Each structure stands twice: as C-alpha cells, then as structure tokens.
Amino acid sequence: MLDTTLSLQAPATSHKGKDLTVTGQLSAAEPFPAGTTVEVTRTDAEHPTGTPVGTFPVSTATGEFTFTERPRETGDITYTATYKGDGQHMLATTQTTVTIAK
After folding, report:
1. How many Å apart are CA 43 and CA 53, to the nearest integer?
2. pLDDT at position 36, please?
3. Rounded Cα–Cα distance for residues 50 and 47 (Å)
4. Cβ neighbour number for residue 52 with a 10 Å cutoff
5. Are 66 and 22 in contact (CB under 8 A)?
6. 97 with 20: CB under 8 angstroms?
7. Greatest CA span in the chain, whole angstroms?
8. Quick one: which of 27, 3, 25, 6 has its CA closest to 89?
C-alpha cells in the first residue's frame, strides 16, 4: 500500500453570505485511478457533529479538487476531507478551519 497525502487550503477568514472556495490536493507516489473522489464534511456551531458538504472528483492529472460554499453563520467552520483509499493507496484525512465574520 502506498502512503497517501491529502491537504486542504482555505483562507483563514471569510465573510457570512460570501462565496468561500476551498482547494485540496491528493498525492501519492503512483497516480490515482479515474473516478477518484474525496468526501468533505463541515463542523460548525450549527452542526457540532458534522454535516456532509459533498463528494468531489479528484483530477487524475494533478490530484486537485475544489469546492465552494456560502457560509450562513459566523464563527469557526472546520472542513474535514477524507480519501477512503483503494487497492493501492492508503486512507488519508485532513482538516482546515476558517473563521467566518459578519
């Protein structure tokens, strides 16, 4: 099994009601198969146990993925991305937190 690295990049702060774009990258020594996806959940004051954001396709060429949300509440939002692994690649997970202001 190959080690898998997953990362998320987001601004440290954003504003309620404005588009917030989060990008990520999935990487390993060997390429990922076509159709590879990453699942993202969001944890915030309204959803302390987490709520699904979606399942996003990973580019087979670059390993990148992206999603955009429009936060409806102020405070900290933590996004958790998970790659469940496959026959060659290990599971990977990562988080990033964004503070949402008015």
Report:
1. 10
2. 96
3. 5
4. 10
5. yes
6. no
7. 45
8. 3
At 17 the three-state DSSP class reads coil
Collapse the DSSP code of 11 into the 3-class scheme (helix H, G, I; strand E, B; otherwise coil) and give the result. coil
pLDDT, tens digit, for every residue of 31-83? 999 999 999 999 999 999 999 999 999 998 899 999 999 999 999 999 999 99
Do residues 97 and 22 lie in contact, with contact meaning Cβ atoms separated by under 8 Å? no
Q: pLDDT band at residue 27, thresholds of 50, 70 and 90?
A: very high
Give residue 20's pLDDT.
97
**pTM to 2 decimals?**
0.95
Per the listing, tokens 């198969």 go with 33
Closest CA to 75 of 100, 47, 52: 100
* Strand 75-83 versus strand 13-15 pairing type: unpaired
> For residues 2, 40, 37 and 27, what is the CA-based torsion angle, rounded to 10 degrees?
-40
